[in-house]
Amino acid sequence: MLALRISILRELKKGSVMANWPGDAAVLPLAEPIIKQFEGLELSPYLDSAGIPTIGWGTIQYPNGQRVTMDDPAITEDYAEQCLEFEISQKTAAISDCLTHMPTIHQAAAMLSLAYNIGTSAFSTSTVLKEFNAGNIQAAADAFLLWDKAHVNGQPVVVAGLLNRRKAEEAVFLTPDAQSVAAA
């Protein structure tokens, strides 16, 4: 259902299909569980591992553009889902614009989870993207593990939750799509 709503929103917004994206209906069922597992659902504002005010499924900015603050009221689960949908639609469009060739469904799902967590600006300059675009799939997969740190008191610190997330994303990234296996 989430994939359908995001696809409809994107069609209305852009009027076209993204050139280097395998399609939300295929990608989101793989990406959303990773995002939800590692972001967790918090209906009241909290500080994430880097000290950033966050709410819902890792939302740091509401669909209206306002940043989350620790003084914000609690939200409903329905609104948390709306925020998730909005952020995913923004990130899939940004990721697609950065890709020079079509990823597999699994690669797209892993990159979406990474971009959801680190932001599209960081993703656009990441080694994951650089190596993927160069066709170096194993190097791109390995580069997920570079994103296992958060800045705490100005210093990069390995965060166990981020390391676990990056390992899960790397594993998904390297998983062949069913149709790729059948075609081989």
Mind explaining what this structure looks like?
By secondary structure, the protein is mainly α. It has one domain (about 1-175): Lysozyme, CATH 1.10.530. The chain is built from nine helices and four strands. It has helices at about 1-15, 25-40, 75-100, 105-120, 120-125, 125-135, 135-145, 160-175, 180-184, and strands at about 40-45, 55, 150, 155-160. It has a two-stranded antiparallel sheet. It has a two-stranded antiparallel sheet with strand order 3-4. Strand 3 and strand 4 (about 155-160) form a beta hairpin.
**Tell me about the biggest sheet?**
2 strands, antiparallel
CATH hierarchy: architecture: Orthogonal Bundle
- Relative strand content: 5-15%
Helix amount, in percent?
55-70%
Count of discrete structural domains: 1
The low-confidence parts are 7-16, 180-184
* Global morphology: globular
Q: Which structural class do the helices and strands define?
A: mainly alpha
Mean pLDDT: 89
Strand order of the largest sheet: 1-2
- The sequence of SSEs as H and E is HHEEHHHHHEEHH
Per DSSP E runs of 2 or more residues, the count of β-strands stands at 4
Q: Report how far apart the termini are.
A: 31 Å
CATH class: Mainly Alpha
Count of helical regions: 9
What fold name goes in the CATH topology slot?
Lysozyme
- What is the alpha-carbon Rg in Å? 16 Å
